[in-house]
Amino acid sequence: MTLYRASWVSVHKRLRLALFGVCLVFGAAEAAFAQEPAVAANPDSVDGGNPELGKRLYWRGITEEGAPFHATVRGDIQFSGAQFSCVNCHRPSGFGSSEGGNFVPPITGPLLFDARQLNRNRIFAKLFQEAQPSTFSAQVRQPRMRPAYTSETLAKAIRTGVDPAGRRLGPIMPRYDLGDRDLANLIAYLRTLSARVDPGVDKDVIHFATVITPDIDPSRRAAFLKTVEAFFDWRNKHTEGDQSRPNFSPYYRSDFIDSYRIWKLHIWELNGPPKTWTDQLRKRYAEQPVFAMVSGLVSGPWSPVAAFCNESRVPCVFPNTELPKPDTADYDQTLYFSRGLALEARALVDHLRLQPGMRRIVQLSHAAPAGAMPARVFERAAGRELGGIALEKHVFADLAGLRGLLDAIAASPEKPDALIVWPGPAAADALSALGTVSTSITHVLLPSAALETTLGMASAPGGEGVAFAYPYELPTGYHPRAFRVRGWMRTRGLEISHPRLQFQTYYALTMLEHGLRHIIGDFYRDYFVEIIEHEAENKLNPGTHPNLALGPGQRFASKGAYIVVLDGKARGGFKAVSPWIVP
Question: Is the same domain home to 482 and 466?
Fold first, then answer.
């Protein structure tokens, strides 16, 4: 375990955040809320309201009776709960948002029920998150002091749009037609909203964890851990300097001094089968809570780690995994680069849909998760989108099984129009076994991991039809940030032995830094994740993917893939034969 120091606060111009649709986000928010268990009414809640029913109202716009609420905006535009629930604008944290010149103020419990004061730290974050008209700056900077809300004055504001000082709220704030019980429930929930700093934050220290499994290739393990440790050390040297002269800057730096923390890294090594990982993480967290997990490198599915993060409400920022949680991840606690192998499977289906003469496809998949999961995704997607095309499926457990299947295909007088192979952990063996079969089939398709293995082989499988899914940036892509990251690593003596792994890890660490830089001293995990949603599309992409961007509740930053083929004359040894496919 290593102790580090760092600062995440500096005054600089923020770049544009991703705009969010007020109505479009609701479907994802509702899906996320539906996953939470129902909670019985609590008659002892504050003001007699039930905060869990208030949470349902806040997230889904559903009243105590189970019906959508009704409201009016801009004087005469009427809508129901499924269109304008509170979470869409005020966000899961309650810290609000900004868009199109409109400022949505925070409505967390501690802020609503205290007298309003001008907080330059929170203004700072809003001012620099996106390009705004000059009127926005004036609007945000207005003190608009008011008395603390009470249950009665808050109910009046929600219904009529008038605050405790008698001023009218902005015209985009809906006026809600809510009964007394629903208002009591909503107010009870708002009192709990971001009411306590989340675990993992001490007076002087903020704790983070990363996860790794011992069966990772030693060179990859070393490249990953050295990158994480070097970043922590680098950031914390800045804090050491800033803390030694806290009043050096006229640009609000002294206001930020209370938000400085020492960063402490905990490396959580997971052992045994994946089904035991969730319990291992629970024990580690009980021993030392962390504010967030950053990156990670495991051999196997991420689902057990995601389960722990969801139940403990611990954000995990961009782990290195090809096997993210397979079902919907809207509003989950893990933010991923992409859907990994599931995305590759969907891209292959879209590619085959455009190929003429398709009548029969054969799919061979390894029994391990890296083979079985994309095979299932491919099968489901093909059933929906490749109607009339026969799909034949086979599973193999080892090289002998794969060779037997390939020999049967080679001996058959009728070859399939396409052969899909998901080799799982046996990519090198699978590529060697393909042999002459690949030359007799029009389309032979493999995942991106097989491409990387192929590029390192003396002799690759033959045939012009051999292609690979590739959910990353092409070697011809240009990203200025990549040059800065390479320079950063070299000046710290880091060998760039695994570029994508190290660059993805660096990006995750950058998102950690920028998220904390914006929340300043408001150490609330939901708020932290919301900032990352905005910052993901910032000019911080080190070139691992063509584009990285998140919207509210979204958890996959890269949405597509190319289909590529080997080409000795092309940069990197391969080239794209498809556009960027977004399934």
Answer: no
